[in-house]
Input
Amino acid sequence: MPSLHLPARPRAGVYTRICSPRSEPLRHIELGMLSIQDPAEEWHTETGEREMVIDVFSGKCTVRIEGPGGNAHFPEIGIRPTVFAGKPTLVYVPRESRVELFADQTPLTAAVAFAPAREVHPTAYVHPEETVVKSVGHGNWRRTVITGVGENVRADRLMVGETVNPSGHWSSYPPHKHDAPSESEEPMEEVYLFRVDPPGGFGIQRVYTPPDDPEPFDEAVVVQDGDAVVLPRGYHPVVGAPGYRLFYLWVLAGESRRYGAWSDDPRHAWVKGKRA
Output
């Protein structure tokens, strides 16, 4: 298997593709970044047979949508200066839609996730106060998980959210996976996109399969600000270096959507019963 680690890519115009099924071991997810430095720049796209989620990282923008999910105009959305300074603003766009995005406050950065969609669902705007925020774990594996597009938004495949690790903390812990159809798991691939505060820091991501996997692998990589990691299958814990907060956008997609449909590595699940 090729490396799952995707180092940060330089800006390639308004939209920079990070990963897609054309170049990574993915079936559904394309992820890219919007970066608008000049108010005169705009972004126009058509979703075609894919649904899309926009997650505003920083700045403000206006989004106009025309399509079977309903025409919409969302002016001056986005409230935070960085991903470490508040909850996200998101827009869900169904398939067969035309999208226009204009920056109201620059620099504007936003993540854009796509996945094939079989049905048309309503266009949706998710205000920061409509996201679902939870403190997960305890001790040095406590983190904040923010679900932006989950059960609160009708969609075909995509689920999108954010996780923020305090300095030196672990997340996606105990290690969990979601790649095998079972009562506890819903097969879903995933992509993490990282930010680090201060940006000179780093984290470590491990991706590994169970011992009985017919095609085993075990990869550990250093992730820095702007890097991404593709998670087609396997357990995938992550830790931030002491002194640095670690943020990652997570994008999930599968044949169906069920947040929390994963199973923990049984060798490490015992930590859930131990209070540090």
